[in-house]
Design brief:
Length: 306
Amino acid sequence: MSVQARQTPDEAARYNNTGDLIMGNRKLCAMAFFAAALSLTLLSAGAGEDREPAHQKQEKKLLSASVEVSCLTKYVRRGIVVSPEYVAQPAASVSFRGLTASVWASMDLTDENYAEREITEIDYTLDYSGAWKKINYSAGVTHYTRPDIGAHTDDPATTEAYAAIGLNVMGAPRIKVFQDINQVKGTYANLSIYAEEEAWRPVDWAGLSLGLGASVGWGSHSHNAYYYFRGDMMGWGTPKHEKARTGNARAAFTDLQLTAALPLRIGSYVTIKPVFHWSTLLDKCIRHAMRHDDNIFGGISLSVGF
């Protein structure tokens, strides 16, 4: 099981001396990326303000299904490194009249977490989505499970209910709020924007787009105590780390993630998407508690929808 390294006094001093500089650099990067995303949304608005974002243009069907597999250099969730090396993440969903049932899984491809080629997480989601004029909305529930293998033996299952609302305008702003109703009893909110515009269409049946996105998360005291303040990297909810998890916990903005993608759509059903992410933890106390506070990762996904 991976264990967080304790900081020596010298390391703590270096952290305090450089903290403001690191925070400033992160703010500059975030501002530059937000400016780039805004520029892309303005360019994509050339056809008028009522234009629906390109990535949301999908044929409305009574019944639809999709399958997807992603290969990433690491698995990062809410700024937390769950798997520090390569993972494969398959998913499948079926939708009928706005109601969608889906399953998602993550498999470690190395032995870093003592679970090589093992499924380390399976999530089940039931979602209802709809739209009204320029507003889109969704609500649902996700049940997170971590099979009893490798480093994840002590990780309990938990369940989150969520609701989201967004706008079908430039940048597709969207806020999504999660409420844990099982293990954590905490709240997490995520505000995101995403802009996508077709950049190149060499043939009629294939087109390459550029997508830029950004999201920022906020967690309640209970959420942050459970996920960020613990003695070991993967010991979610283990009682022996109760003091370490709760000592400095507070409600705070938790993480920022910037995304760049190059979706290649082939025909009406297939999408190949290289993607690049930069993730950072925002709260100083959370950064001090976590082993990995800044992460660069990426990969490629293949999805088929019908």
